[in-house]
Amino acid sequence: MGLGIAYAGSKNEKLRHILTDILIDEENSISVTAFTAISLGLIYVGSCNEEVAETLISVLMARIEAELEQPLTRLLPLGLGLLYLGKKESVEATAELSKTLDVKMRKYWDTTLLSCAYAGTRNVLKVQNLLGQCSQQHLEEDEVDQGPHAVLGIAMVAMAEELGHEMAIRSLEHLQYGEQNIRRAVPLALALLTALAGLVIMLYACLDMTTALFREYHYVLYFLVLAMQPRMLLTVDENLKLLTVPVRVGQAVGVGQVGRPKIITGFRTHSTPVLLAVGDMAELATEKYIPLSPILEGMVILKNNPDYVVE
Predict the structure, then answer these.
(1) How many CA atoms lie less than 13 Å away from 203 in the CB half-sphere?
(2) How far from 246 is each of 9, 202, 273, 289, 290, CA to CA, in Å?
(3) What is the per-residue pLDDT across 33-66, written as a single tens digit (0 to 9) for each?
(4) 8 A C-beta contact, residue 274 and residue 282
(5) CA distance 141 to 96
(6) What is the CA angle 200-42-11, rounded to 5?
(7) pLDDT tens digits for range 244-285
(8) Tens of pLDDT along 116-139?
(9) Strands 232-236 and 298-304
(10) Which residues contact 58 (CB under 8 A, 6 or more apart)?
(11) How many CB atoms lie within 10 A of CB 178?
(12) Which InterPro entries match (predicted)?
């Protein structure tokens, strides 16, 4: 897990060999295999790497059928799905392999890969597909329920765009009147409309909280690190070169009130880059530049003020 978190997105070949050796060792427990698959998926997230995919597929197909009842088994297809995060049609060949799976996992495999591959694409047809899976009232004998995962998939596909965000919320509101297992997944899907890879892993684990998070696998919470970033204020010019400028940082106050024209109080003057604490707000302490963003947070582009006169 530590390697997956630390090297997420790095495509580190040395780690691929190390983790592959662990993954193919049949004597390892399902928990070691599951977190190895997740770590490989994180290191090669969105890369569609064929070698990693082939290794994961061969191992996952064997372990899934043999240890279906283990709670972490459901994380195995997610490791594969991370390889195709946001890559749309690139997942189709891999998804076809689901037809060779036992019926218990066939639809779940499809749902997981589809959700990852079309994450952030706002594909209406895929959302309708996932909604259809949520509406299925009965499962085949011994079939794994993919409904809660389809709920998360709706949020994954519709996220990252205002209209799609609203569409997903309306769809999820309707699902709150469905089956109990579907209703339980709705708050998790709503939480997913903020960040992705680390949150997806965490939310998949949350679908089985009693067995996973509340017992021996509480350390899955560490995956939230991938969705965290400090509230930094970085200022750059129009060519994206770092600019060091003075800014005032203080507690945010009401704006536009009579007698209180300032937006911050108790401010201190710093030079960017600067770390903003909870409740802090920043404003430029110079008129030499004009910010292109109304809120000074994260990376802010500054342009020269044509009316500025050096005193």
Answers:
(1) 27
(2) 34, 39, 9, 11, 13
(3) 999 999 999 999 889 999 999 998 888 888 776 6
(4) yes
(5) 22
(6) 155
(7) 999 988 887 755 455 546 677 778 898 888 888 877 888 888
(8) 888 877 787 887 888 777 766 455
(9) parallel
(10) none
(11) 16
(12) ARM-like, RPN1_C
Q: Residue 109 has which token pair?
A: 């495999």
Q: The tokens of 147 are what?
A: 């409904």
Per-residue tokens: 87: 């890559």
What six digits make up the tokens of 160?
């990252």
- In Å, what is the CA distance from 290 to each residue of 55, 232, 306? 52, 19, 9
